[in-house]
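Students often ask why we bother predicting the structure of a whole assembly rather than each chain alone. The short answer is interfaces. A chain on its own may look different once its partners are present, and contacts between molecules only exist in the joint model. In this exercise we take two input lines together and write out one structure for the complete complex. Read the inputs first and try to guess which parts will touch.
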Amino acid sequence: MGKVARQVVEQAGIEVNVLLDKLVRAAGAEFTTFYYYTILRVNSIGFDGEGLKEIIEDARIEDRNHFKALTPRIYELGGALPRDIRGFADVAGCPDAYLPSNPRDMKAMLNVLVEAERCAVRTYTEICNMTFGKDHRTYDLALAILHEEVEHEAWFSEYLTEGPSGHFRRGTPGTSPYVRRFMSADIG
Amino acid sequence: MALQKLARVEEIPPGRTKFFRLGSKTVILANWAGQIYALHGICPHRNNPLEGAILWGHLLDCPWHHFQYDVRNGENHFPRNVYPADLPRLQEQVRPLRTYPIEVKEGEVWVDLE
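Now the answer. The structure tokens for the assembled complex follow.
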């Protein structure tokens, strides 16, 4: 824990325990989404699914990256991840992204994906709103994650023909162009 | 019908919610597009209070797990719209949120909690 790091956030008027609850829930959602997206990606097969698979893979890895980037901030502020992973899944801030009853139904799968991303967009918008101008480090992190979640939503939305996203492939899968700088342990 | 005065209209501007504890009961008022709706204040998903719930259009967003309810009828919108039908136990999580009749009289919001 960073004693002063927490103190400055408290003095800025943020209820740190409330913020920590939101951060742990967000981390839980990223972790469980990584799990569920693995299942969705494995099932994205056939003519339509093969194209979708790459995009799910980008989102899957970037959601894992979000978990990795959030975790240090939780501990810096004096929080902790739940000791029991079952409890962690229970507090996850977004519903589970279940594989549809018919895994060959690409539209159903896309609806699961786009709704999961929309939940994430709402989550990080709330954290940004809460921390803006008060907790600069958490705000910067949440904004970086928000950038990627907005892109994920746009990718899946584009597949549902809701409009072009302007999306181009990541250079390599799950590059996390915005969050990468927070993953200090991964940068060589 | 036992109406109970909860608030003045101006306390719940459009797009906002207000949470009330009334003894053992909880209620949340939501103003969508100038119309005020009253809903039970506990999310039926995990029985968490809806205090601090945000409105996204006509959908009330639970701050705990982001389950969303239509303020007009209390029906769960998300994740009911994506939960698979072949996992029936999930349907218990997406039960509707109870709604209460309201009347607006002379700028005051009255709710029937019976």
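Check your guess against this: Chain B has no helices and 13 strands.
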